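In the previous lecture we treated proteins in isolation. Real proteins rarely work alone, and many bind small molecules. This record shows how such a complex is specified: first the sequence, then the SMILES for zinc ion.
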Amino acid sequence: MRYIISLALASLPTLALAKVPNVVTDIPPVHALVAQVMGDVGSPVLLLEKGADEHDFQLRPSQMQSIADADTVIWIGPELTPWLDRAMVDSKAVSLPLLDAKATQTQPYPEGQGEEEEQHHADEPGHAHDGTDPHAWMNPANAEIWTDLIAANLSALDPEHAATYAANAAATKARIAAMDAEITAQLAPIKDKSFVTFHAAYGYFAAHYGLARHGSLALGDATTPGAAKLTALQAELKAGAYTCAFPEIQHDPAMLTQLMADTPTKLGQPLDPVGSSLDFGPDAYDTLMRTIAKTLADCLSAKP
Ligand SMILES: [Zn+2]
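The predicted 3D structure, ligand included, written as tokens:
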């Protein structure tokens, strides 16, 4: 018995060379992409919790410790999660803010849907709030681009598993492409329908799938808009400008349902743009996108 144990110990130094990096991620769709690329090699940590709002989240001490212990933090960036930006001030981890990557396809918020002027902090160092919409995971082309960036980042930290990361990334991209084709076909019949959502998170989704027109109640960071915007939105709803309105699971639907009272707009099921109601894990990106598509299609394709 003793002999067997000493053999096992003798093999430890070899194992120790292949140290799998501690990876911390911000939101469920990014966590899902990293989990797919890591596969059986390791499991990334996810910070955002069930039902939480991506823009406004309070980290627990154990999560601060995860960030302190991380070899790399893979996240959308400070534009989406200022709470994580603040937590990473003293971090030694390799930061991979996906929105900043050169290959990422970014777009501004739709007009009037971003953050209101007084909420811009252009003078804050390191915060170039240039109106870029950070909800970029809802363009599957970005998810494919990011899959390669994630594999490259992990391979740089853990060259021994580079071949596995590359193979997993290829499989992940194929899965995203298949999902994208299915959603494209699913949404084709409702492209001309208009809808309004709780917050301005769907610009990438609408642009990618060619959805004609959509509006939002809350701003890009999910904060309440000013009175002028609310009045304008209510007038649009009264005039029948939107077929359906969609609340979100992270937010009280009351404001949206009040605005919709006595208008022809139909109430759809709540959307979950960041996937915080889903089962977290490698499947969450696929599920997030398919669930948004189905929720939109269920209401928008219904006969009046
Ligand atoms: Zn958002």
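Summary for your notes: The first helix runs from residue 2 to 10. The mean pLDDT is 90.
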